[in-house]
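SEVERITY: medium
COMPONENT: batch folding queue
REPORTER: lab tech (J.R.)

DESCRIPTION
The queue accepted two submissions in a row. Attaching both inputs and their returned structure tokens so the on-call engineer can compare them side by side.

ATTACHMENT 1
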Amino acid sequence: MLRTEDLDVAVLVDPNRLVQALENLFSDAITYAGEDITVAVGLEDRCPYVADDGPGIPSDRRGEVFEKGYTTREDGSSYGLTIVRSAVEGHGWDVGVTVSDAGGARSEIVDVEEAEQRGNRLRVLAGRIAGRADRLDPAVSRLGAG
């Protein structure tokens, strides 16, 4: 389940796959954004997002980050964002990266309303991911909900 204080959204999802996708997006944000970061997890127009205030992703690389085999680290597995894309596309949605309001990366799951119109129906309330932040990385300095 996802939660925000001021928004309840009902959308059909496979909760395990959606949570896994959001965990991977969150994990990447805290891995690549730097030492002292703020990560926001939220919903906007039914679309979940994970945004940070790190250095962001160069515009010429944004289309590649969800491709199998893409990594910027020697010890990176390259599977995290590929799993995200698979889970998201399995719902009939899409995922992409833009610039966050803070100038960092903003990964967002889009076309959620369209998928709902095709008949998908599971409930999602928007932040389970935020509640699992300590399990992902106890060194996270701050977590905001957007």
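ATTACHMENT 2
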Amino acid sequence: MVKKFVSYDTDTGELPADVEADLAQRFGEKLSKADADATYVRGEVADAKYAPRVATQSPMLVVGTRSKTGNARSATAPTSSLSDGSVQAETIRYRHFATCDAHSIRLVYGNITMGEPGPNPITVKAAVQYSTGDQGIVPVYFNGSRTVTIQPGGIAVSDPVPLDLYAGVAFYTRQRVSVTEAGQKWPIGPRVDTSVGDGMEPTDVVDAGNPATGHNTFRFGPTAIVGVPVATGLEPTWFLLGDSIVQGVGDTGGEPVMDAGWPARGLANNYGYINAGRAGEEAGQFQPGRGRLLGRLQLAAYCTHALVNYGVNDIKGNKTAAQIKGYLETIWAMLDRMGIAVYQSTITPITDNTGTTPLNAAQEAVRVEVNNWIRTTPGLLSGYFDAADASETARNSGAWKSGYSTDGTHPNSTGGGGIAAAFGPFVAALS
């Protein structure tokens, strides 16, 4: 119940006449003082009724780029998305872009690799940096401590960081990850590119120093960068869920996004996202009760929209069209329950290495049937993105556009860029 705030005579205990009349009109009889107190908030305001101003605030959402869920672009299995165990600690800096004006920034880290628990506990120390060099470094705390130990399968969310982010402006995360014994490992995700200010340093330079080595290697980084957007009218923030195509296998990515896979490349630096792709995954494996949801599904709560890109591996695994439809509808329902607008991608071609001939006629028939069904916007979908139309020579041809794929399954850098070029305007139209 929302109470009104009114003047109240504390000396006599009498209600003002207008309040008493209001109660009599609403309830048909004079109420007791206790009943009145249940409806009206007692207060003393000189000669006026006063309604307190209630502030509105946006929810906590992804507000930066390059969020990865322990899924390095080149990894084809959880074991290949871990450090090599040769060192026990290192510090890494990554450049990110703010995707909106935001405050109350928090860094999220996971001890999870492609939906599987990490092999051992890890300890993380972090800071956020405004500019290059070692200027403008703000320490990050976890429940009041500079470090946090994350158990296998765990996620740690920092305390709010006292800084503001501004849309389109670069900033840097600095994180040090360590283990207690030789041979232990940690999840890896983003690719280091020293040309944009990324870098690695073996020693602890979280709070000062200039990490500058490790170019073109995959290292530990944030699972998400979240905060409270200043504006209440929100741009979409995206939970990118799917297989190796979302993860970025086969694609080299590059500037300006520094992440691979056509979904992230299409978002560029304009929208916050979390890349939750897993190589080899089928829609039938991302289902309720499956361990693979770990460290991925719960992160969708930081997003307003989801793009689901499953189907290739289900088809190659000889699942029927009916099975695939059922799996997808279950995934959509999980996301819809979280209040997320769900979009499905159509399934790109599956061909031999020439890119022109479907790998299997029966499987191609399933792909065409599922794609035609997606185009009807069934069930809980808010819409769909036609990645197939963006990548095929013609609708349902089963052939890649020239130069779009090297192995017949994954878009290469050219193909990823081509599909991304269509996805960007699609997303912009939703804003």
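NOTES FROM REPORTER
Residues 321-337 form the longest helix (17 residues).
No errors were logged for either attachment.
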